[in-house]
UniProtKB/TrEMBL annotation:
Signal peptide: none annotated. It comes from Lepraria neglecta. This is WLM domain-containing protein. It comes from the Eukaryota. InterPro entries: Ubiquitin-like_domsf (IPR029071), WLM_dom (IPR013536). SUPFAM superfamilies: Ubiquitin-like. The lineage of its organism: Eukaryota, Fungi, Dikarya, Ascomycota, Pezizomycotina. Residues 8-22 have a biased composition (Pro residues). Residues 322-340 have a biased composition (Basic and acidic residues). Residues 137-336 form the WLM domain. Residues 1-25, 108-134, 301-347 are annotated as: Disordered.
Amino acid sequence: MAESSNPPSEPSLPSPSTPSPTLPAQTLSITFTHHGTPHTLTFPSSSTLTDLSTSISTDFSIPTSNQKFMITPKLGVIKPPFTSPPLLSTLQSKKIVLLAPTATELSSLSSASSQPSRSTASTIKPAAPARHRDWKKVQEEATYTFHTTLPLDYLPKPERSLKFLERLRDDPGIKASMRKHKFSVGVLTEMNPAEHTTHESKTLGLNRNKGEVIELRLRTDAYDGYRDYKIIRDTLCHELAHNVHGPHDRNFWDLCKDIEKEVRAADWKSGGRAVSEEVFYDPEDREGSVGHVDGGGWTGGEFVLGGSGSSSSSKVPAQTLNRREAMAKAAEERMKKQREAGSGGPA
């Protein structure tokens, strides 16, 4: 037989399979504000607040031990380590403010502490034996307090407002009452006199979500001074009562009266007595349900530090503001007359 002229065919090699494209992992962007400047970071969708804290520590040189986050609404002020860190995907619609010193501030503090002056070093005296400290009291005061004091840094001399807020926080009477009632407030801040004000009325204090944020009107309407400390402290007593009771009912006024008495009794700096009997509301009118400081404790809305105030859902009824303003003006007029009488006439 004749051999075939066609050469034997070579076995074909299987073609390599084309690798399937890898789908990119889903990501999300989180924006937070630090010292008034917004920053946006990108994370995998499964990331938590702990991952944000770690990235801030790495990218901004702010240790986690110096970090606090004010997350509104609802969460308030929290700091690492977090017991149950929330998913970042649940925080995208919330306002996140990082309360922490900058890397430059930390560096300057470290440098100053590591280089004491010779005069200071030469005057250091041997440490005296420590007196007995009530550690239970120390722990309670660290728990039942205002965890953050925030002035409005866009108003003149915010450092004065900070000292005013810190004085309220450290007031012996306020501290004693907060320990007794176990009040823990996230943020104590000042109120812009231009906000919560109408032609005929003004709000002197606000308590959001039973202690998430308390705002106080520290400044005069013309921004040229500060209101009387005792009056502001009485306003704070009123707002602390809203941690328990929202409406101005009998229970609210009973608690408010108890807090005021406790604060004055424990104020050893003033001998347990107020310097002035002037207050911003009439104690004889407490039987009613009308508020002279605010419109009652309120929930919801959006608190924006240095912003335009709360949403319409948290506005106080106009008639309540009118009555409050009338009482405030009456108290201010009485104080003015007393000052004029003490100085022999109008200034």
